[in-house]
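Hi F.,

I've been meaning to write this up properly since the lab meeting, where we talked about keeping a consistent format for the predictions we share between groups. The idea is simple: the sequence comes first, exactly as it goes in, then the structure tokens exactly as they come out, then a line or two of notes. No screenshots and no reformatting. I'm using this chain as the first example so we have something concrete to point to.
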Amino acid sequence: MTNKNYTGDDIVVTKNIDKIYPNGCHALKNVTTNIKRGEVVVIIGPSGSGKSTYLRTLNQLETITSGSIMVDGVTMYDEGTNINTLRENIGMVFQSFNLFPHLSVKENVMLAPLKVSNRSKVEVEEEAETLLTRVGLAEKINIYPTQLSGGQQQRVAIARALAMKPDVMLFDEPTSALDPEMVGEVLDVMKSLAAEGMTMVVVTHEMGFANEVADRVLFMEEGELLVDDIPENIFGTVANHPRLQKFLSNIL
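Output, unedited:
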């Protein structure tokens, strides 16, 4: 499956990444992969396999012990790299919504562009309203996060990340904190982003989403990237790696 807006150039390049915590936990072991512009890459694997750790290295929420990371042509650990500037081009959506309860939905979306990008309030407000319409929340722009369902709050979080006009979006198990009936509304927004050509790296347990939307699926276990393949081969009749077979047999 090839994304319609796939352009063939790498936006994320990770080489030989290791992450060892002070307690000796070896969370990532020699992880190497590239992510193309316009590509949707879904990372799967059991709990504790290093999926979220890897994702968080892509915007330096986790520092690496060794290896190299390049995002949009910028080498992350070069001496002259401004990580805050680099992060402006990397949107991230977490398990928890992290919305400011004292700000309205629209104000939550407007906050970063106003504070970080120093843009005009009129322009930012118009864009916030457009983004909230895009995620299906046009009628909720002036209410507060506590008045929203979990699925609605997560859609606001997606709009907030998009407000910075990122080149790549990272999703760290964005539906895991939601009631089952709210999962679909968030996945639908993510599917629409994928269809529009947004570069996305998604850690998820939603295998249906991975099979339907991903260009590639990465399978990780015990800090290792064991399989990097297209969904048809990952979710085929017989997966092509014994540890992947065992993982899928336990969840499907």
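Notes:
Residues 1-8 have pLDDT under 50 and may be disordered.
The two ends are 21 Å apart (CA to CA).

If this format works for you, I'll send the rest the same way.

G.
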